[in-house]
Amino acid sequence: xxxxxxxxxxxxxxxxxxxxxxxxxxxxxxxxxxxxxxxxxxxxxxxxxxxxxxxxxxxxxxxxxxxxxxxxxxxxxxxxxxxxxxxxxxxxxxxxxxxxxxxxxxxxxxxxxxxxxxxxxxxxxxxxxxxxxxxxxxxxxxxxxxxxxxxxxxxxxxxxxxxxxxxxxxxxxxxxxxxxxxxxxxxxxxxxxxxxxxxxxxxxxxxxxxxxxxxxxxxxxxxxxxxxxxxxxxxxxxxxxxxxxxxxxxxxxxxxxxxxx
Length: 261
Hints:
By secondary structure, the chain is of the alpha+beta class. The protein contains 7 helices and 11 strands.
């Protein structure tokens, strides 16, 4: 959510657009990456604002991560209409990214939920702009220079995500509950090792019930599907949708899930 559009506050007649989108969706379970609120600054979005606004999903867990700016809480979160029985982090090495596993009571059924924000590629704004400029005017010289830059920047992130994916896959393998949902920003494409390793025997809700390209990242012509909702085979997905809210650098993804047993 890019810190709720960079902490845009709720104002009379002008609510935070991302919070409004969540409310209007009437989702039962809301998983958030890049959750961010101010701690002691009423001029921007605060924890109290979020809790008050998302009152229809009263159960919540927020897993804090490191963040370079003082006075803000940053991390990943879940807001739910269903009770959260437990939650814990999945420990792996990262500065600004992370994952957690929670257990939800969905009308008497125990559901494991894993929310992820995997290692970012850490491209600078200038490098993202360079990519956009290159797509406007491709030639061998700027393509070669950009390819060299991307190799240096992306390779460390690929290695870290592979390790993170293996740890998450192990948590999925050890899961004791009959139902499981795994979602989040994987920062990797459908053809990647990251997606392959985490998905395993789970079903991809977009493949099952979505349509089109499903691109979820929307800036600088990096038009990739890097956000996912997976689920166990004893659930069925309907109408998986990539929204078009442009108040973050990611589009929101949603799906309906139905128990089949």
